[in-house]
Amino acid sequence: MVSEFLKRQTDFQAEKHRSQLIDIWKYFVANGWAADNIAEKTLKPIRPEKNRTRHSNESVEAIKAICPPWLKLAIDLAMHSIQRRADLVVMERSSINIKDNTMTVLQHKSLNYDKPVFIEVDMHPELRDVVLECIEHAMKLRCPFLIATRPERITEHNRNVKLHAFAVTEDHLTKQFKKYRDLSGAYDHLEPNQRPSLHDLRALGIYNITQKYGKKYAQALAGHATVKMTDHYLEGHEAPKPEKISYR
């Protein structure tokens, strides 16, 4: 039954579910409720390698040209803040200190770490500009979040799943980006599964910031514990220019 269940999943889902089932059966065995960890006896799914290309600045500009204003701001914020989707949609106006020119983020992905990643960094000029635009837009909607939009209609379901009536969920942001990416025709030469995603904006942003402000600043802004992770995001772009670090 476990094996048949895993076969019905995608490779990515099966890998996650199998890992969780193994942990569940470990608990069963430890309590004497099962003799063997049957989940471990299933075949380990082989997740295919990602075959996705990188974004280019020209293609991102083509996407932004046809986007609604709120999504254009979200793309710019993603590019210049180089934060993950989960952090972008919950970034509040209160996390920005205009006077000190700083942005503060407690990165969602790190909450289960022994030492969660809490960053407070100086905003580079492009980031400051887009943050100010986001604040102005959000204040018009009286929304505390930097990424905000007025939905066509507000349902009870939306109220239950959203942090604010005009806030944007991770899923909605991803789907809207994908929609306008494909409408723009910027990646028509690629198969759908090869087209870069919303998350891939992070890699382009890290590359751009490394080129202009240095790898150390890009590493700090991204919240990477090691430069090796920053280098991982730089793969696929041109070789970076000699490092130039910008200090406040």
TrEMBL record:
SUPFAM superfamilies, alphabetized: DNA breaking-rejoining enzymes
Highest taxon listed in the record's lineage: Bacteria
InterPro entries, sorted: DNA_brk_join_enz, Integrase-like_cat_sf, Integrase_catalytic
MF term (GO), any: DNA binding
Pfam families, alphabetized: Phage_integrase (PF00589)
Keywords: DNA recombination
GO biological process: DNA integration; DNA recombination
Tyr recombinase domain sequence ranges: 59-235
Protein's name according to its UniProt entry: Tyr recombinase domain-containing protein
Organism, scientific name: Acinetobacter brisouii CIP 110357
